[in-house]
Specification:
There is one protein chain. This protein has 290 residues and is mainly β. It has one domain. It contains one helix and 20 strands. The strands form five sheets. A six-stranded mixed β-sheet has the order 2-3-8-9-10-11, with no helix packed on it. Strands 1, 4, 5, 6 and 7 form a five-stranded antiparallel β-sheet that branches. Strands 14, 15, 16, 17 and 18 form a five-stranded antiparallel β-sheet that branches.
């Protein structure tokens, strides 16, 4: 029997053994800037039956809220998010103007591997560049499910970056936080690690070592460079020049969420429910509305 977990914003199991690395898992839905087109993720679970082990896949539903037209299909390269330590996901969906394409951004959680639970290879070797766990950092889909573009970790890193890259558990740490934000005070852990344009067509991230990654690198005689910006076109998946002047303010990346950072007494990440349009509409803290 197949079981589907669906919601406008999918809230997943709480993180177990939070420690310093695990964070609340989530895969957020998204909509176009004008609100017409929306993409909602669903975790479809297939319980174990006889000798067949349990399995899962991520399904998306694309909807034109004006005409009522829908499309559905599978999403690639995502963990289940059923456990914040052993099978996390920290994902964001961006729907392009016109709704013809959408992008799924899952930068730091490793993609599923075969065999399950495989450890990353020696990061100093060429084989690390093509390891499947580092795939699917950003995937652009047509509304009908065909993949337009897929970026892997090697598309964001230089050869020197692999010398300081830090992996732990099911995550790779290669992004620096934006000023004023941390993995703890941002309502979503991912919000600290990227910026997005108001029309959801341009994403920017800072390639740089976290404090822990820098400390580990220095133990090995490597000093990571200052963080550098990388920009991506969320419609085509092509890398952009981050220094290029952009005349249209709707295409200039900025803070990916409205509202405040987490402060004492305001709740925490597991209680956060984002809006479908997080750049303009603040999320809220508290249990999901019925």
């Amino acid at each position: 029997m197949t079981r589907t977990l669906t919601a406008a914003v999918l809230i997943l199991a709480p993180a177990v053994g939070r420690a310093g690395h695990s964070r609340h898992p989530y895969l957020d839905a998204g909509q176009s800037a004008d609100g017409r087109f929306a993409v909602t993720p669903e975790l479809v679970e297939e319980p174990a039956a006889g000798k067949k082990p349990a399995a899962y896949h991520w399904k998306y539903t694309w909807k034109d809220t004006k005409s009522g037209a829908t499309h559905a299909g599978k999403l690639e390269g995502l963990r289940s998010g059923t456990n914040g330590v052993f099978d996390p996901v920290h994902g964001h969906v961006f729907v392009a103007p016109g709704g013809e394409t959408f992008a799924v951004w899952n930068p730091n959680v490793l993609a599923p591997t075969n065999p399950t639970g495989a450890k990353w290879p020696d990061l100093t070797t060429p084989e690390a560049r093509t390891w499947e766990g580092f795939s699917h950092r950003l995937t652009v889909y047509k509304k009908t499910g065909e993949v337009v573009s897929r970026l892997e970790l090697k598309d964001f890193l230089t050869d020197d970056d692999w010398k300081w890259l830090f992996c732990y558990g099911r995550q790779a740490y290669w992004q620096a936080s934006y000023p004023g934000l941390t993995r703890d005070n941002a309502p979503r852990v991912g919000y600290a690690l990227y910026q997005v344009s108001p029309d959801y067509t341009v994403l920017e991230t800072l390639v740089g070592a976290t404090d822990e990654a820098a400390r580990k690198a220095k133990e090995n005689g490597v000093t990571p460079p200052a963080p550098r910006a990388v920009r991506v076109d969320l419609v085509t998946g092509k890398l952009l020049d981050p220094a290029a002047k952009v005349a249209d303010p709707q295409k200039v990346p900025g803070r990916p969420f409205a509202g405040d950072v987490i402060a004492g007494g305001r709740g925490n990440q597991k209680d956060y429910v984002p809006s479908l349009d997080p750049v303009r509409v603040a999320g809220r803290f508290g249990p999901p509305k019925p």
